[in-house]
Amino acid sequence: MSTTGLREYLDGPHKAARDVVRDGLAEHADLLNAGLTLSRDEYRDKVLEMLQQITADGHTGRGFPKEFGGQGDLGGFIAGFETLAFGDLSLMVKAGVQFGLFAGAILHLGTTRHHEEYLTDAINGRLLGCFAMTETGHGSNVQALGTTATYDAATDEFVIHTPHPAARKDYIGNAARHGRMAAVFAQLVVGGQTHGVHCLLVPIRSLNGEVLPGVTVTDCGPKLGLNGVDNGRIVFDQVRVPRTALLDRYAQVDAEGTYTSEIENPDRRFFTMLGTLVQGRVSVGGAAINASKVALTIAIRYADQRRQFGAPGTAEEALLLDYRMHQRRLLPLLARTYALHFAQAELVAEFVRIFGGEGLSDADEHDRRALEAQAAGTKVLGTWHATETIQLCREACGGAGYLAENRLAALKADTDVFTTFEGDNTVLLQLVAKGLLTGYRESFGKLDPLGTARFIAAQAVEIAVEKTALRAVAERLRDVVPNRNDKADPDAGLRDDAYHCGMVRFREEHLLAGVARRLKAGIDAGDDAFDVFNRCQDHVIAAGRAHVDRVVLEAFLAAVQVAPEGSVRDRLKDLYDLHALATIEGERAWYIEHGRLSGARSKAITALVNELCALVRPHATELVDAFGVPGAAVDVPMVVPSQHE
Amino acid sequence: MSTTGLREYLDGPHKAARDVVRDGLAEHADLLNAGLTLSRDEYRDKVLEMLQQITADGHTGRGFPKEFGGQGDLGGFIAGFETLAFGDLSLMVKAGVQFGLFAGAILHLGTTRHHEEYLTDAINGRLLGCFAMTETGHGSNVQALGTTATYDAATDEFVIHTPHPAARKDYIGNAARHGRMAAVFAQLVVGGQTHGVHCLLVPIRSLNGEVLPGVTVTDCGPKLGLNGVDNGRIVFDQVRVPRTALLDRYAQVDAEGTYTSEIENPDRRFFTMLGTLVQGRVSVGGAAINASKVALTIAIRYADQRRQFGAPGTAEEALLLDYRMHQRRLLPLLARTYALHFAQAELVAEFVRIFGGEGLSDADEHDRRALEAQAAGTKVLGTWHATETIQLCREACGGAGYLAENRLAALKADTDVFTTFEGDNTVLLQLVAKGLLTGYRESFGKLDPLGTARFIAAQAVEIAVEKTALRAVAERLRDVVPNRNDKADPDAGLRDDAYHCGMVRFREEHLLAGVARRLKAGIDAGDDAFDVFNRCQDHVIAAGRAHVDRVVLEAFLAAVQVAPEGSVRDRLKDLYDLHALATIEGERAWYIEHGRLSGARSKAITALVNELCALVRPHATELVDAFGVPGAAVDVPMVVPSQHE
């Protein structure tokens, strides 16, 4: 097989941007050891040095408007950021904080004066900044933040204040050591009235690095991973900033203390502001998927070299990758990595369509909400996938996988928090499900259970209508796909795309309808709204997950269908089948419970997954080579022993 | 509920030994921060200092014969070792290497002269030693080690040699910095004939710490975790030791170069020698289970304090632990931790029965083989459980869980290798399954696939007989337990012990019979033995796992039945039901596929697991308090915020 052809297809439209970052990583491969050899503060400073380096290379400004030194290439920017995950992940996260979150907040929440004053410096890395949203007391529930920004008309200033210990800003990247300014999310209080969470630019350090009066910064100390990022805590004691520090694209305060916003509903205003920051979730998901590629490259190459046990009397022991269990553990994860790669590419294309182009575009609100759900879902699956995959890769490499020199340790430790940051995965899946249930339409309910439950009750009639339509779909499927009368040939049609898509779609729609029914029944019975929601929280999350599984599967299928004919498409089709059937196999209990699979057909699927693993196995090394991870990131001693003797 | 009563019941017969270690950990709590504040070498030296301290406290010699300074209390020794897992895990592992593996090899594989010369010093920590078994090229397949020990009759010496790079000893604890002697496993060559792997004592450092001539030691460098243990690599270049260096309990070489052993079959000799080292696996499993207790204590206390979201209009947000998803994620793991605790207690009791008492006992070989399988199985489940539980606890504590100060990071990193060391888990499960298939009886097949396959073919007739018996059992179960005709009341009997036990036993026996049938069919068809085995490797592993699941469930049930009446037994019964039903739920696809569950009953089980979570929830904090983890290990800033402000 031509690895080049497959790699080009994977790299897609942003190949050039990816290659720039690959070259940079290859050139500065020494950073990969920095976390092992330097003290924590030295490591942080080294990461900062590398950040300035990649900034000089011109990559990091790629996504910003040309007038501020950028290149207006949002897709290339995201692709390049994802590619940073092939290298040191502290560098990637620090770049994400500086260019994605901090500069992104200025770009999306600020107006011309903020852009002109700060954007060029932020993009060039001269103005290092923090994204001070999360507090000790509130992470996922951002609307309940405690920090206040109170307007003082007498001086035309906002007073930034931390009213109690739980309201201190926590886990803030760039805070402990390098940040000079923070984009602070706080409850905006004007004329005694609270208008909800808004964002303001607050200087925290002087030009020579001293923490400013009224600001207290402490270090979060060592972490499980990402120790090259200087996470810290910030407490504000009546810190004054001019009125113009408010990033005022969606809400303005004039000198007289009059608050205005074109979005009247406070919830809707809040979610609109937050929605502009979707790039963070898009980026984290992509980074997690790429970190999985690094781990799989290492573990699959190792398994294709390492021999252990095997039939006695033969000259050599057997390769690990020839064992069925080893194939079973690694190859479905390889297939899912491909699936997620294409789902991420689809997400990035949609993100570029909505946010890309010259300057800022005001895309249709409905599309934005759909994009947010897609970004949340891909982030959830991508990050859980990374945790699972890197863990299994570590175990599949035994004791050697535990040594830092073989890089799986750092991958595991550094990516672990991805499931939590940019939104906890279980919270995000509820967001996805809620989006599906309400369709958002013109109403913006809160993320809280009561709002959801009430809203859903109101929607129940419409959903009942959809259910009728759904039933027709289900009946049609039942005719097309043998499942009850499959005893004669339980294998029939198992590699048929329409079968896979029908199954995952049935699951999504059935779960969704079930959630709506349960919520409505509870509300109708007059039960406490929190209890009603809580009783079906597991169903809500399962419905969200089922939706994302379907989206990912369809993205993979679409990518196979337009892939170059020949070996590229053939290889992808095998991987797609493996992914589709492993996905169905993973939920086979549910399918059987709901009459969509017979026991015999379920067993046939398991047998076919085994066969597909064997079919993919001879190409496994080429399939990881096609990811194009730079050599330094994967040429570890256990794979290249000569480095080592 | 009385936490004290439950804690005493959990501590069982070795309460005193556990409390001694608890007190020591509380006294030396500063070690918990050593890994965060010291350089790697300083941390290693600090761990050594603590090792000498706990040795002085008298704990570490507890399991050795009184004549060498021990206390002859094997059960207390293991219980104390497990309790070390409540503290710094590097200390625990270093103690395991020194007192379990190194001193244990001398005790079990050596004879009087070795005991008299070395044992007291080893127990007192004056003679620090390594257990040099694993090589770069061979970990799980110990029989294929490359290091040689060749007898030179001219000088009455053995020559220890590393013939090629892959034969270097690797990942050896105590090697990089502190060890003075190594128990080296090597192919014994006498008079040109190889007799398989034996163990010899080889000095590697002088009294003042210099590496001896012919020995090359290198450092394995930083690891994912356990960085307080000085793992290293050892290469031998024709190193000479006297003939008496051979630990000669099971095989002797006389001055003329005559090799003798009371065990003629080399495979059987090898497995007998290895079998005496079962204590390592017993200990690792127990340590993993106790590490899970620490993580759960932290995560459940946090979830019972931390509020986020909740119904608006109410005064407070909701506690995390009141959310169904949070209960679903944590409480079945809490129940499984209890189950494993009792399974481990049962294993230790059996271990003491066979290996305990004054001096060495020669227990019945059949019992020893059964003990080895039980130890392997408990180690596998306990260590995978730890990896899964600590991961989920980390995620359940969000960003705070990622900070080193909250200890989940160290628990995760340090325990991760437990699934790999003392035998890779997937290899061990195959060992368990093989033991069940062959019953071992008088024959000792190799661990390799061919041996297994051949042996199993020979046993097929007997298994067929057993299958007939099994069918009768299955029929009987079907009558007792409603499963096909359960539509009228799918909940009936779900909390009945006999139902749980019948289900897990059916699964075990069905899987086992299936493996035997597949192996026999393949062999009968004349297929390549490796292929035959490999094709059903996933079934073999599932059968091993099903066996251990059953053993663990029955151990938990037995412990409930003899627990003190009243609140202790009531709490344990709820946890037992939760564990039993969550176990069945986890395999519900298989049960449905095999006609043991209807879809309706399967859904009823899921609903009941939810209910049981809600039933356990009010007692959750007390249930973790009963583990008796010393305060310093769990009073982390996120749980005790005042430490921190």
TrEMBL record, chains A, B:
Its cofactor is FAD. Residues 14-125 form the Acyl-CoA dehydrogenase/oxidase N-terminal domain. This is Acyl-CoA dehydrogenase. Transmembrane segments: none annotated. Coiled coil: none annotated. Residues 130-239 form the Acyl-CoA oxidase/dehydrogenase middle domain. Keywords: FAD, Flavoprotein, Oxidoreductase. Residues 508-630 form the Acyl-CoA oxidase C-terminal domain. It comes from the Bacteria. It holds the Pfam family Acyl-CoA_dh_M. Residues 275-437 form the Acyl-CoA oxidase C-alpha1 domain. Belongs to the acyl-CoA oxidase family. The keyword Flavoprotein applies.
